[in-house]
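Sanity check

After download, print the first record. It should look like this:
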Amino acid sequence: MSKMMTVAAAVSILVVAGCGTGGETADTANLKRFHDQDVDWKPCPPDLKALGITDLDEKQRALLDTRECASVEVPVDYRDPDGERFTLPLARIPAADPEKREGSLLLASGGPGLGGVDNTIQRPLTNPSLVQKYDLVGFDPRGVGKSEPAITCLDDELVKKQVEVDTSPDTEAEIESLVAFQEDFTDGCRKRSGDILEHVGTVNVARDLDIVREVLGDKTLNYYGVSYGIQPGAMYAELFPKHTGRIVLDAPGPILLDFEESMRQQTKGIELGLERFADNCVADNSCPLGDDRDAVLDGLSTLFDELDAKPMPAADGASLTEADARMAIAIGVYDPHGWPKLEQALSDATDGDPAGLYAMAGVMAGRDASGGYSNFWEANTAVNCVDYPDTHDQGDVEKLAKEFDKLSPRFGIGNAWRLNECATWPKGEGRTKELNGKGAKPILILGNTGDPDAIYAFAEQLAESLESARLLTYHGEGHGAYGEGNDCVDGTVDKFLLDGTDPGEAATCRGLDAPAVAAGRVHFFGGNRTIMSPLGCSRSLVATHR
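Expected structure tokens:
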């Protein structure tokens, strides 16, 4: 075929990233010491108890016990490979059958801002067939998670402001407070992260992938990315088409749009997701918010308004804010397997118990099983601001807030104000609107017609843009398709990754009419995916526990 949480870059990747054969040759010469570095793999079986994973059989536990960890170094600035370096953590589950091993399969998370090391825990359990032929490798991208240096923006004063700021402002005072916080947040990132902020964009993540590929000893890159994770993979096909292996891009975001249009489309998507959740909720005649779609949606609006006026006391002196409830509902809506859990949490909240929504908001906020928090929010903002160098002034955003509010009365205003986050951000490389991956091997794209974040049109756009794309259409629900229990999707992807079977340019799979968790499947609520943009949610829950 041929032509965030997605780009309006003014500078082409052809210039800044040196793509094409000439660029690859120059990069190889300048980066030889990075490609030749040794990797010291050491055992690092996961602490399943700390992660809250208890329902595994002996075979699954034995598989995870084989996990190993290491790290690689990459240049902060590819134009200055002799300068500072990032250290990226890696983890892998070695292939179960060394004689059948075909190399490594890199697993990339959503976000941007999510680390991928723990993908080596989830993916072997949801898709165990992969480990028969591949080392399954996860990594934390530059500036993210446990990479060093990591993006850092907050001090105690900013944490306090986080708790107080309303990211869906509906008064002049709230707008003034939010704009001031956004400026302070940018200043905090500049002060605490320094020059690395300009170099954490997706183009450089794609270039890091080529160093990781070389260090792992693979001639080509085999790759599975979901949500934002598709973007480094797509960029890789543009930069290094001759090095592509079997690449799967699941739930593409608006990679070919600018920031404003991507937020507009995602705002439409979340409202459609809310409608689908509402329809499912009322189908069993026990929905806690009403008996029809409109009643459920109105009930959500009422809940937000009540929390805006007065947060609901939660455990340990914390409170469930309007922003926390939005986070919980966003992550619940995006995962049909979590719809029953979301319904129960909403029912409890209407009875004055916010524990369920508060816990779900913690997943969205980047809270781990130990109660600590990653740098997800800082990294999410940083990557988006580098990737989207186009900015909006306050007047533009105020007008867009009115438009977006009509598209989604529950999430539109917050989404619009995300466009103001990058107004004073340092300019980075940006990205390109042009992606064709000329010369790349077949790339499998998964598009879900019921995805409320990565709407199906985004998958169609990417498939049209990439010359070697194969589009698998999944008529189902939720954010992402692979590993969610659909035999058609899983079988098609497995055949592509394990045997190189080309599904053709227009394959189709159909899901169940209602979401259900398949018996015996391991499902991690919230998973390793997140929406590309956090829907204008505040970081108050993160700040409370930081």
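If your output differs, re-run the checksum step. Summary of this record's structure: Residues 131 and 399 are 51 Å apart (CA to CA).
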